[in-house]
């Protein structure tokens, strides 16, 4: 919840049993560490006031305040309660290792409770929580169980368990394995006696804390990792805007407005820093003013005044005068101008960037009743209030509509800004329907009809009259933020390495759902047949991607042919001996020439060529991609000719590896289209690549992506769990 | 533009000038008088034609020059400079044709307005009539639209005998059904419009991709954009000439200018600075190439009113990019509208813009009785919020109103019904600005009054409601409740708060100082204590107050 602050202890088992795993499975220790890392990352980037502590148990040493008389051994308070930072992340990365002792998880829990109680003293926290990550392999001491549960209840500490195996096999096992592919690790192994006993104990504790939903707070490592891969939603504390709704001068109702919907931006901006020192203090930006003469004479800012264009003239109009003469008003206001039918306020004429919800003040029952009367009256009449809205004295007044909103558990008015006359652009467009040349035939219309049928994103449930929406945009986290934090995190943890590719789950979340994609195949084919779409040729370079793709297919062939011609022509160059290195104008030709001349060793010429290719690729432009491809073709052709495949093959392999990081997918597709692959044994004897491998080389990438998609499918309803954490 | 000088004609001319200056100052305007005694035209080849203003961008000076011809004084001035002579509309039209042809710029449209009150300018001189007709048709052939702005005259102005052949006829329904209404109402011109005219221009041309290889070319148009005051221009104080601004980035220590390659971008999280190259920052934002990609369809009721984050834009096919686009677009539009569904698309509107989801809401064409389009056909593009854009609110628990209360409010609502039209409200801020500017430019004593159309007409509302307001208040508010006052509850707590604010006895304070327990007291109490002992503090932080008090009382 926004505006609240919580204290959380991560309590992780690092004892020796955590390193045990069935063959082919990741040990629980690694999984638990991942959970903690992901969680801390999210906390760091969320930048809220939540504080975190880290307690390890099963450690070789003992370091905790309760360490006395051989009690509470092998438990280490690694970090006290504080706001998490990258230091903590680095510590987890480098200092948390599997150790060789075992400790009682119940003891560890007591240490955590003690830590929460002592370290939150004098600070206000809305939530206290302990998250235990363990495989439950140790026998837990049950002596003080009742006391512990009582203490947890009293202090209001909530518990979460993260285990390598699900708490309830019988119910979850079957259903989940369908969805997530391979079953949870550890489930197949069978639990030890200690684990079974401990699990019962966990259930007992959780159910005594919360009779109904206690077991919802027991997670598997796998689930947690999956859910934590998403960065936290940006949350802001809603700011109350108290005002009065007025109808004329006699009737007013006290209201409080809250921004309910607005395009959220990242809280932090990029700061410009010096490339060498990484210091922002080293960089200064300055704006200077200069006259429009030949010398560009600079003038001081104080020597300038402001003016406005009035036709061909510019009228000097100082800030002071402007402030004095400008439109002034009485400040904060929410005044009804009148009421109108809802359908006269068109959805596409909504202006501004927000929706404000108006409630009655929390402590004012009478205002609540009065506002409710207005909301219900509008709702029953299907009308809206047209209002004058001014946020405060300094801001410009708006005209807007207040829509009634009656929900099961609350009522409110929703305010949206409407346009002024000056905002509207009354463009007219040629009629579509009355134009015989353009109007679709009946068969064409029915093709569109069946397309719509196949692509409906709502499903009717048999037992429910309601339609289920299978693609809720407002449940998708803003992909720009997710990607932003992913890259920031990557750079922070792995400085000096290229940015990672997009997370597969994120990519999948933005795509058409699989059900729809399958269902619409045939109708789409039908559309393709019924509606001829012909791209109009234009001399100008076209910009949209699809148009570029359309052309790419042909161009390489044309260039290939050119390449052959040039070979003859190049002989003239050779005679003159003008080519000494691979230049940037026509690197492929220079390369061929130099190979022929044999003036430089093959390896060096190749290096020069690959250097040019890299330069070309850094331009991210189809034109340069084409040029790079002719270079690679030349590289391949000459390598085959000389029977030296190694340099070419290793370059192509490293190029392929760097594709995702350098975002060169478009280029790679071109390469695939031209089937420029590795040099196989069949072509050059010395090659270590088989013909099959060479063919596979271009295909692999696609398959990987396909495989990645389904695993990331399940991204719904994550918020709830994350809120609880 | 021509005018027979006449007081009311001049008024219209003035208003055309002032409107043009604000709506589209780049348009060229000329003012030509005919039937004058003196002649003044480019090669002085026409008699009785006086080019008062050549074709040029209008400015304040011209408005003042038109003003100079108005009134009694103006009439005298006009008589001196131009006088009155023979009328030859043919010559005047010819002269105008020359003005047009002397302009080297390519003009998007040319318009000629004839202001007159005489329906037979040549008094039946058929030769002159014929000459005028020939010239008019020449002008029309070069794409000039001729309008007649005639004044009422006793006996009525009869367009038929002469001017019918001069003015441009409303075009026949063109192939695409677009036609310009001839503006033949003087009143329309007199109504001053202070809004910047916007050219119809596509913000972007994209492909709407339905599936592999099915790309419909579409243009995106902004049909409603928040208008702002035009930007100020910086001028040099001495000469009032515009100055240019240059922004540069340099190194603090060395003072040398920094090239883009010598700059990186950084953000700090969790006490760690994270640095990226500038192109990496751009590449993070890139997901796909620009375009609209169809995800599926949803029934209209799934489009929630409150899912609004920015003004909608408008989609119309671009037949010029992909032939066949209009047909498929039209079919989609018809079917979506018929079935009351919208298309959900992923939209990347520009290079390096992250994707947004949009609802394409069908909009059928609507025309009025005169077959003039008032709603164009196409899709409205509604931007949809992501999870991050919805804020979690904690709505207060309030009792609902009873049906009697609701019914009373319904009466109030019905009393104040009106028909909302989006173009009915002018922005008072912008209107005031333009009037101020006008006043300054034309040396007026005071700017014209602005009517604030978004001010509630309180008196009218009160009058219409009559006793209803009181009746409603009696139903919902208890006696003595005043919604105008600041929060009632707050005042109570305000009073309650004040009590502990009262002074702490001196010995108690000294005890706190000795024990070092001043921190237990609240900031208001500490402030009060400071006042009490005449301690001056610069800061308002608790520790500063404590420190100040400690030094004073320990001494």
How would you characterize the overall build of this protein?
- By secondary structure, chain A is α/β, with parallel strands linked by helices.
- Helices cover 41% and strands 19% of the residues of chain A.
- In chain A, the strands form five sheets. Chain A has a seven-stranded mixed barrel with strand order 7-8-15-18-17-16-14.
- Chain A is globular.
- Chain A starts with 5 loop residues before the first strand and ends with a helix.
- Residues 170-188, 541-577 and 701-725 of chain A have low confidence and may be disordered.
- Chain B contains 17 helices and 19 strands.
- In chain B, β10 (263-269) and β11 (272-276) form a beta hairpin.
- In chain B, α1 (7-23) runs antiparallel to α2.
- Chain B is extended and about 115 Å long.
- Chain B starts with a strand and ends with a helix.
- β9 (271-274) of chain A pairs antiparallel with β10 of chain B, so a sheet runs across the interface.
How would the blueprint of this fold be written?
The complex is a heterodimer of chains A (725) and B (555).
Chain A lengths: L5 E8 L14 H19 L4 E7 L17 E8 L3 H10 L9 H15 L7 E7 L11 H11 L1 E7 L5 H12 L12 H17 L8 E3 H8 L12 E7 L3 E12 L8 E4 L8 E9 L6 E2 L4 E7 L2 E4 L2 H7 L7 E9 L9 E9 L5 H17 L1 E8 L7 E9 L4 E7 L24 H13 L3 E3 L6 E3 L9 H15 L10 H6 L4 H6 L1 H10 L3 E2 L9 H8 L2 H22 L10 H11 L4 H16 L4 H21 L3 H17 L2 H9 L17 H21 L6 H7 L1
Parallel strand pairs in A: 1-2, 1-4, 4-5, 5-6, 7-14
Antiparallel strand pairs in A: 2-3, 7-8, 8-15, 10-11, 12-13, 14-16, 15-18, 16-17, 17-18, 19-20
Helix pairs in contact in A: 1-2, 1-7, 10-14, 16-17, 16-19, 17-18, 17-19, 18-19, 19-21
Chain B lengths: L1 E2 L3 H17 L5 E6 L14 E8 L3 H9 L2 H11 L7 H14 L7 E7 L9 H16 L2 E7 L12 H4 L19 H5 L13 E8 L2 E8 L11 E4 L6 E9 L11 E7 L2 E5 L1 H8 L5 E9 L13 E5 L4 E2 L1 H15 L1 E8 L7 E8 L2 E2 L5 E3 L2 E6 L19 H13 L12 H14 L16 H8 L2 H9 L11 H14 L4 H10 L7 H10 L9 H13 L1
Helix pairs in contact in B: 1-2, 4-5, 10-13, 16-17
């Amino acid at each position: 919840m926004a505006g609240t602050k919580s204290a959380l202890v991560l309590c992780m088992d690092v004892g020796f049993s955590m390193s045990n795993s069935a063959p082919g499975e990741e040990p629980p220790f690694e999984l638990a560490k991942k959970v903690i890392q992901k969680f801390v990352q999210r906390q760091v980037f969320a930048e809220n006031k939540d504080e975190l502590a880290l307690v390890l148990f099963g450690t070789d040493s003992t370091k905790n305040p309760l360490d006395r008389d051989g009690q509470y051994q092998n438990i280490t308070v690694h970090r006290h309660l504080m706001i998490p930072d990258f230091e903590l992340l680095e510590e987890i990365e480098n200092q948390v290792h599997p150790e060789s002792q075992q400790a009682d998880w119940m003891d560890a829990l007591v240490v955590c409770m003690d830590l929460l109680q002592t370290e939150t003293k004098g600070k206000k926290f809305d939530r206290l929580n302990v998250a235990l990550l363990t495989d439950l392999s140790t026998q837990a001491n049950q002596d003080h169980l009742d006391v512990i549960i009582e203490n947890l209840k009293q202090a209001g500490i909530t518990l979460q368990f993260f285990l390598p195996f699900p708490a309830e096999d019988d119910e979850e096992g079957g259903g989940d394995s369908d969805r997530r592919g391979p079953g949870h690790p550890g489930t197949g192994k069978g639990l030890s006696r200690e684990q079974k006993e401990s699990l019962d104990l966990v259930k007992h504790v959780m159910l005594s804390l919360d009779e109904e939903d206690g077991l919802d707070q027991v997670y598997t490592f796998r689930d947690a990792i999956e859910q934590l891969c998403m960065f936290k939603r940006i949350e802001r504390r809603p700011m109350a805007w108290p005002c009065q709704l007025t109808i004329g001068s006699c009737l007013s109702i006290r209201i409080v407005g809250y921004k309910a919907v607005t395009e959220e931006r990242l809280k932090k901006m990029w700061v410009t820093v010096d490339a060498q020192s990484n210091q922002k203090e080293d960089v200064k930006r300055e704006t200077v003013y200069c006259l429009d003469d030949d010398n560009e004479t600079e003038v001081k800012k104080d020597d300038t005044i402001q003016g406005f264009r009035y036709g061909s003239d510019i009228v000097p109009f100082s800030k002071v005068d402007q402030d004095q003469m400008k439109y002034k008003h009485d400040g904060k206001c929410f005044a009804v101008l009148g009421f109108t039918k809802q359908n006269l306020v068109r959805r596409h004429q909504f202006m501004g960037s927000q929706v404000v919800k108006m409630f009655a003040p929390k402590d004012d029952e009478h205002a609540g009743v009065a506002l409710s009367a207005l909301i219900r009256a509008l709702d029953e009449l299907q009308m809206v209030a047209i209002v004058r809205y001014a946020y405060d004295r300094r801001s410009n007044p708006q005209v807007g509509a207040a829509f009634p909103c009656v929900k099961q558990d609350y009522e409110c008015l929703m305010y949206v800004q409407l346009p002024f006359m000056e905002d509207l652009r009354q463009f007219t467009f040629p009629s579509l329907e009355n134009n015989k040349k353009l109007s679709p035939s009946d068969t064409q219309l029915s093709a569109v009809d069946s397309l719509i049928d196949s692509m409906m994103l709502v499903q009717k449930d048999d037992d429910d009259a309601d339609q289920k929406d299978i693609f809720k945009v407002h449940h998708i986290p803003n992909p720009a933020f997710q990607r932003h934090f992913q890259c920031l995190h990557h750079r922070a943890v792995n400085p000096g390495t290229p940015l990672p590719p997009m997370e597969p789950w994120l990519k999948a979340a933005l795509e058409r759902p699989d059900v729809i994609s399958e269902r619409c195949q045939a109708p789409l084919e039908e559309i393709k047949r019924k509606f001829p779409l012909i791209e109009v040729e234009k001399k100008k370079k076209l910009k949209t991607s699809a148009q570029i793709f359309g052309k790419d297919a042909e161009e390489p062939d044309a260039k290939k042919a050119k390449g052959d011609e040039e070979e003859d022509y190049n002989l003239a160059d050779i005679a003159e001996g003008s080519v000494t290195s691979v230049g940037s104008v026509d690197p492929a030709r220079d390369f061929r020439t130099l190979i022929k001349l044999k003036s430089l060793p093959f390896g060096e010429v190749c290096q020069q060529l690959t250097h040019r290719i890299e330069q070309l690729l850094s331009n991210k432009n189809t034109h340069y991609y084409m040029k790079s491809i002719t270079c690679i073709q030349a590289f391949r052709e000459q390598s085959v000719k000389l029977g030296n495949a190694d340099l070419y093959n290793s370059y192509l392999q490293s190029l392929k590896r760097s594709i995702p990081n350098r975002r060169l997918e478009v280029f790679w597709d071109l390469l695939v289209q031209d089937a420029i692959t590795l040099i196989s044994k069949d072509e050059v004897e010395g090659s270590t690549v088989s013909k099959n491998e060479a063919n596979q080389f271009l295909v692999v990438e696609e398959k990987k992506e396909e495989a990645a998609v389904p695993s990331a499918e399940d991204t719904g309803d994550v918020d709830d769990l994350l809120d609880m954490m | 533009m021509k005018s027979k000088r006449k007081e009311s004609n001049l008024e219209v001319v003035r208003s055309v000038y002032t409107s043009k200056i604000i709506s589209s100052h780049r348009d060229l305007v000329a003012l030509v008088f005919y039937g004058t005694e003196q002649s003044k035209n480019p090669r002085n080849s026409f008699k009785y034609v006086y080019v008062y203003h050549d074709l040029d961008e209008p400015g304040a000076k011209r408005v003042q020059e038109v003003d100079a011809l108005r009134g009694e004084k103006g009439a005298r001035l006009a008589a001196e400079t131009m006088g009155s002579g023979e009328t030859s509309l043919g010559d005047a039209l010819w002269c105008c044709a020359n003005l047009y042809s002397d302009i080297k710029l390519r003009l998007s449209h040319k318009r000629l307005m004839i202001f007159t009150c005489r329906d037979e300018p040549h008094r039946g001189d058929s030769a002159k009539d014929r000459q005028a007709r020939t010239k008019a048709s020449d002008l029309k052939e070069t794409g000039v639209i001729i309008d007649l702005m005639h004044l009422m005259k006793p006996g009525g102005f009869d367009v038929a005998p002469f001017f019918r052949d001069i003015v441009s006829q409303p075009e026949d329904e063109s192939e695409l059904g677009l036609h310009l209404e001839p503006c033949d109402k003087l009143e329309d011109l007199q109504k001053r419009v202070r809004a910047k005219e916007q050219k119809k221009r596509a913000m972007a041309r994209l492909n709407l991709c339905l599936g592999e290889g099915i790309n419909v070319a579409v243009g995106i148009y902004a049909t409603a954009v928040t208008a702002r005051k035009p930007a100020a221009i910086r001028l040099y104080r001495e000469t009032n000439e515009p100055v240019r601004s240059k922004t540069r980035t340099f190194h603090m220590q060395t003072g040398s200018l920094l090239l883009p390659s010598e700059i990186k971008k950084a953000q700090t999280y969790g006490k760690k600075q994270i640095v990226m190259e500038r192109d990496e920052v751009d590449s993070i934002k890139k997901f796909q190439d620009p375009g609209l990609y169809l995800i599926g369809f949803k029934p209209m009721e799934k489009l929630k009113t409150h899912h609004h984050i920015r003004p909608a834009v408008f989609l119309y096919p671009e037949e010029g990019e992909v032939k066949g686009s209009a047909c498929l677009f039209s079919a989609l539009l018809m079917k979506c509208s018929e079935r009351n569904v919208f298309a959900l698309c992923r939209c990347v509107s520009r290079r390096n813009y992250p994707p947004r989801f949009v609802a394409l809401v069908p909009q059928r064409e609507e025309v009025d009785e005169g077959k003039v389009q008032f709603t164009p056909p196409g899709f409205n593009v509604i931007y949809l919020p992501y999870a991050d854009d919805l804020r979690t609110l904690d709505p207060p628990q309030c009792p609902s109103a009873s049906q009697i209360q609701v019914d009373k409010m319904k009466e109030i609502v019905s009393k104040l019904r009106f028909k909302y039209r989006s173009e009915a409200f002018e922005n008072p801020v912008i209107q005031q600005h333009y009037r101020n500017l006008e006043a300054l430019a034309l040396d007026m004593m005071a700017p014209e009054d602005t009517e604030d159309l978004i001010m509630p007409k309180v008196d009218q509302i009160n009058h219409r409601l009559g006793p209803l307001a009181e009746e409603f208040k009696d139903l919902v508010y208890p006696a003595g409740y005043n919604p105008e006052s600041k929060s009632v509850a707050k005042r109570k707590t305000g009073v309650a708060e004040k009590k502990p604010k009262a002074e702490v006895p001196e010995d108690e304070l000294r005890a706190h100082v000795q024990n070092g327990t001043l921190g237990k007291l609240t900031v208001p109490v500490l402030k009060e204590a400071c006042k009490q002992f005449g301690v001056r503090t610069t800061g308002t932080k608790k520790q500063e107050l404590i420190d100040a008090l400690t030094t004073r009382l320990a001494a």
